[in-house]
Amino acid sequence: PTESELRANLLSLIPSGTKLRGVSVKGTTAIVDFNDAFGYNRYGKEGYIAQLRQIVYTLTEFQNIKDVQFLIEGKTRAFLSEGIALDKPLTRASF
Which residues of the chain have pLDDT under 70? Predict the structure, then answer.
């Protein structure tokens, strides 16, 4: 967030150090690939859910995107953390 966004009490729950390695679209699925830092959220389970929701809601604003598949270091993970499944694409209804 920018300084003005922070003053307005807006924040990002995407972990510090996270880098987007790539984005592609297959059909109506956005495939996003992040580095390992994406898997370390200091806010616990609620933080992990919020970081995923933040990305899914942003990407599904595009008319042609219905769901989002998350990759970390180019690979699908069964779970992000604390039982939060990442093995299938997520939709807004996932939350």
Answer: none
Find out whether 48 and 81 touch, Cβ atoms under 8 Å: yes
Distances (CA, A) of 86 to 4, 7, 8, 49, 78: 33, 33, 32, 11, 5
Q: Which residue do the tokens 């769901």 mark?
A: 67
Q: Which two tokens stand for residue 66?
A: 């219905």
Residue 31 near residue 25 (C-beta atoms within 8 A): yes
CA 90 to chain centre: 9
pTM of the model: 0.88
Are the CB atoms for 59 and 71 separated by under 8 Å?
no
Per DSSP bridges, beta strands 67-72 and 20-26 are unpaired
Cα–Cα dist 63/7, whole Å: 32
